[in-house]
Amino acid sequence: MSKTKSSLYDIYDICASCGRDRSFHSGAGGEAAQGRQPVFRHLFVETIRKPKRSKKTKRSKKTKRSKKTKKSKKTKKTKKSKRSKRRSDTYSKRVSVKLDDFSDELYQYFKRMKLNPKHNFINFTTDMKSDKIIFSFHSRINHHYNSDPLWDDIHCSELILSDTMIVKTECDRIENGKPVKDKSSIGFYKVFVKGFHNLYEYILSIQSNKTDKKDHQLLFDLLLKNQLFLNDRSLMNHNLDVKTLHFKFS
């Protein structure tokens, strides 16, 4: 910078102390004597002034910042989508059903229950209170069962509740390779329902009016009867082992 400054003084014959033409100080013939102002000072000032940042540079930085912001927003959106996806993989709901109107109240709930169209499986556990049963429903996707037996392969007694509601209960306990009826066994009170793979299909059948209220009441009145007989046992629908809708007690 000093080199540029001194070279300007030499080229334009400018005084280093005041920035005026040197002839300003030289006797009567100088510019000062003739009343003229120095003409080169503005050249020196403009040369040493700090150069302004170009608009192009500012714009490019702004563009980079905006791109970075967009990227961070996109990342947040992706994370949110992943969380939403995880939520949609499973669904849980707790419902209280009074014992006084057990079958009817549960039927009304199944009728209006919102099924996830991406799922194909629902099961539940229960907690028995003094005058009600609390259901905990769980919905998800399931394609894997340990067994898929034919109706005739289920070792329980068939019970025809109606022309359209057939079940199997009073199930055998296998002892030394032979089926045995044992009322002291908790497995004796299982109830298998013909025509359904799981509870999701059963609820869908109610909502499409294929299973009516009467058939539902016949089935769940039987389940409640077993529940009350077993007293301290809880009704549940696990249904991950056998690909036939069934209910048991634990």
**End-to-end span in angstroms?**
92 Å
Structural class: alpha+beta
Rg over alpha carbons = 45 Å
Question: Structurally, how many domains make up the residues?
Answer: 2
The order of strands across the largest sheet is 1-3-2-9-10-8-5-4
Flag low-confidence runs: 39-48, 83-87
The geometry reads as: elongated
Q: What's the β-strand tally?
A: 10
**Strand content bin:** 15-25%
Element order: H for helix, E for strand: HHHEHEEEEEEEHHEE
Fraction of helical residues: 25-40%
Can you describe this structure?
The chain has 250 residues and is of the alpha+beta class. It has helices at 2-12, 41-48, 55-89, 102-112, 199-207, 213-230; strands at 90-98, 121-128, 132-140, 157-162, 165-169, 172-175, 178-181, 191-193, 235-237, 246-249. It has an 8-stranded antiparallel sheet. A two-stranded antiparallel ribbon has the order 6-7. Strand 9 (235-237) and strand 10 (246-249) form a beta hairpin. The longest helix is centred in the first third of the chain and has 35 residues, at 55-89. It is elongated. The N and C termini lie far apart (92 Å). Mean pLDDT is 79; it is low at 39-48 and 83-87.
